[in-house]
Structure formats: C-alpha cells, structure tokens
Design a protein that fits this description.
It comes from Compostibacillus humi. The chain has about 450 residues and is mostly helical. The protein is built from 18 helices and no strands. Helix 3 packs antiparallel against helix 12 and helix 5 runs antiparallel to helix 14.
C-alpha cells in the first residue's frame, strides 16, 4: 500500500530532506566543535567521513523508505515481515521524541534572542554582558517555556498541513531563503579587516592538533549533521516516487549540507578572528561571542538579525522532520488523524521538554547520572540512540535485504552502474558498521 501523499517534485524532496539534515548540527554544533578541534584538520576529516560514512548511510535510509513506501515502522515490517527489525523504527520514534523535546528549547532561545534583538535589548553590550543576558534568559521559566511552546506550535501547524502543502511548501521557502541570507552574511564576514586569519584557521589543516578524539568527533559529526540513525530519511524517502533518481538526490543533499557547514564556518571564524575572539568558546559561541562581534560591525545588529533568521529556519526545517516521523507512523496516511496526532504528539513533546527548559533555572540543581535533564537528553540521543540506529540500519540493509532487489531499487530512476553499487554495498556492510562502533566505544570510554 502506498503512502497517500508524495513529494510533488525531486526539488521538493531534496529541499525537504536537506532541511531535515541542516539544523543545529550544521550551524550550531559544527562551528564550536571545529573551533575546539583546531579548525582545518577537523573540517578535512569531517568531509572525508561524510563521504565514506554519511553518504552511504543516507542512501541506505533512502532505499528502505522508498522500497516500502511506508512510515519508518511499517517499512521494516514490509521488508522483513515476522521479525523484530521494526524496532529500529520504534527506536527512531523514541529518538526524535526526546531530541525534539530539547531541540525545541534551543529553538525557543533563538526566537527569544530575535525578539530581544529587534527590540534593542542586545545593542552595544560587552561580551560579559551578552553572557549575562543569555544566562538570565534561559534561566527565566516564563520566557524559556513560552518560547519553546511557540516554536512547537509553528512546527505542529506545518505538519498538520501534510507533505506537499506543509513540509514541502515550507522548505521551498525556507531553504532558498536560508542560502541567500547565509551568502549575505558570508560576504560581510569575509570582508572584515583581519578575516584572513579565520580563513587560515578553517581551511589550512594543522595536523599537530589532531588527536584520536578529534578523529572520532569528526566521524560522529559526519552522520549527526545529516540526521542519520533516527529514521528521518526513511520517512521522507517513503514519499519519493519510484522514477526519481535516488543516488543523485543523496549526493545533492550531502553537497547542500557541506555547503551550509562551510558557510557557517565562513560566517563565524573570519569574524571571530577579525575581532580578536577565541574560536573554541564552546556551545555558547553563537549566543555570547557572535552578538559581541556583530555589535562591533557597522549595521552589525542587522546582520545578527539575519543570522538569527537563518538559524531559526534551519532549526525549524529539522523540527518538521522529527515530528513527521512520529505522526506518519500514528496517522498511517489519514489526513484527519494526521492533524489530531500532530497536536497530541507535539504537545506531549513540549511537556516532556519542560525539564530540559528548566535545566538552566528552576531545575539547575537537579541532575541524573551527573547531568542536567537537558544534557542527559542530548547525550542519550547524540551518543546512544543515533549511533545505535545507524548501526542497526547498516546491518539491516546489507544482511537482511536481498542484494539484487536493493540494486534494482537504487537503480530505479537512475543509471547507476553496478560497480558503483558494489562499492557502496561494501562500505555499508563492512566499513560503516566498524566506524560507528568506534564512535560508540569512544563514547563508552569517555
């Protein structure tokens, strides 16, 4: 049985899938991890692992979704009936439920910062003052919860409108806008006096700074930035017609993800070095350091507003895919049930995320396993759920699906040569699982 809806075009699918991938991992997490790991060497490792780990996994998820043309749970049931492999889809649902519960908190921070910026509350402050205003903002329960709820309501409304009128239409607007605004920001950043030091940091590898942890960080980042392992791409590819070129779409999405990562680096690092800041400021880089930098530029707060819009668009497009995974399973293609489940699950995610939102204020003294609720949720998704899901998907597609049928599915709509398929199959069966296990072992040791 086919899904009731499909993407109306290959472009709509690519923009939506790219929107799912391009989020906090590319714009927030990548810059500060690259900053902490020496810049250029980390970027080079990230690009290598994206090609040998991220791209094969992305095509694997696409193959599962389009083969069955059903949601993340039903796809595994159709391909491997009478087995427990469908639990991968269940794991994906749990993963995105937890992920969106704290992801929406950060989305709320962005909305709050945008409001503070347009009302003039962020003008002309020093870096300590920006740090103080960020800390007070995320510690305020009314502001934090209100912004988080507002972010979730936007996400819910888009999902209630369905695949073509909701997800696809929103991404067709947001993704081109994101690219245009990003380019404007890059032009401003790279024309600053002293920006060349940022170029050197980002593009000239210093291998003396590379450690085993740097390699594993780059490896993990390569599939975190593509939203792999949570069945998001299985869900989106189930809406993809059989005559569409799946390998080409996968390459396009990876290319767009890399482009955004590079644009984020070109916005942040030249500006950071131009104003004598440190690139290894960690997770607060975008909320403390960047406002300080933009405030020192001519018309800087206008450019900061543009950056916040880019950041918000990227965060929302990823949030759409997270909620869609769960709603697709529960609604089973029924439009009326889609609207009901979107509101039910969206509100449940908000409620589950309340402790994450309060982790920086009322619940700041509460910890589980030595971590705040926010940090624990982030740790579980990033270090346990996602790599586990990615590992199981790589094993499932290479050992459970028939190789001949898999080749026919991937070749459908394309002119993929068998030799290229063989190389991909070797990677997904032998190389990808080993790399993921190395990441997971590093997490266990860490």
């Amino acid at each position: 049985m086919k899904q009731q809806e499909q993407f109306s075009s290959r472009l709509g699918f690519i923009l939506s899938a790219a929107g799912a991938a391009i989020g906090l991992g590319a714009i927030w997490k990548f810059p500060y991890i690259a900053g902490e790991n020496g810049g250029g060497a980390f970027l080079l490792l990230f690009l290598i692992f994206t090609m040998i780990l991220g791209l094969p996994l992305l095509l694997a998820e696409f193959s599962i979704g389009r083969t069955a043309q059903q949601n993340a749970v039903r796809s595994f049931q159709i391909i491997a009936p009478g087995t427990k492999w469908y639990l991968i889809g269940i794991l994906g649902m749990i993963s995105v439920f937890v992920l969106l519960s704290f992801y929406s908190v950060v989305g709320g921070w962005i909305i709050t910062y945008f409001w503070k910026m347009i009302t003039g509350q962020l003008n002309g402050l020093t870096e300590p003052e920006y740090a103080e205003i960020f800390a007070s903002t995320i510690a305020n329960p009314a502001i934090s919860l209100g912004a988080q709820l507002f972010f979730m309501i936007i996400t819910i409304i888009v999902i209630t409108r369905g695949v073509q009128n909701g997800i696809e239409q929103a991404n067709k607007i947001m993704m081109p806008a994101l690219a245009i605004l990003f380019i404007i920001l890059v032009i401003r950043s790279v024309t600053l006096d002293g920006a060349s030091a940022g170029f050197s940091f980002l593009f000239y590898p210093d291998f003396s700074k590379v450690t085993a942890h740097t390699v594993l960080d780059a490896m993990g980042q390569s599939f975190f930035t593509l939203s792999l392992g949570v069945s998001a791409m299985i869900t989106y590819s189930s809406y993809l017609p059989k005559d569409q070129n799946m390998p080409k779409s996968a390459v396009s999405i990876v290319a767009m993800n890399i482009m955004v990562v590079l644009l984020a680096g070109l916005v942040i690092f030249p500006a950071v070095f131009a104003f004598g800041m440190e690139p290894d400021a960690g997770p607060t880089l975008l909320f403390n350091v960047l406002p300080t930098i933009f405030s020192q530029m001519p018309a800087g707060m206008l450019f900061f507003a543009v950056f916040l819009i880019v950041f918000l668009f990227a965060t929302l497009t990823s949030a759409f895919s997270m909620l869609e995974i769960i709603v697709a399973v529960l609604s089973r293609g029924n439009k009326r049930k889609r609207k009901q489940w979107a509101w039910i699950i969206g509100f449940a995610i908000f409620l589950f995320g309340i402790p994450s939102s309060l982790s920086f204020g009322l619940l700041s003294d509460v910890s589980l396993f030595g971590k705040s609720w926010f940090d624990l949720a982030d740790y579980m998704v990033s270090n346990v759920f996602m790599p586990t899901g990615a590992l199981l998907i790589s094993i499932f597609i290479s050992f459970k699906m028939k190789k001949s049928a898999l080749y026919e599915e991937i070749k459908s709509g394309s002119n993929l040569r068998f030799s290229v398929f063989q190389a991909w199959f070797f990677l997904i069966r032998y190389i990808v699982p080993v790399l993921i296990i190395l990441v997971m072992l590093d997490v266990i040791k860490g």
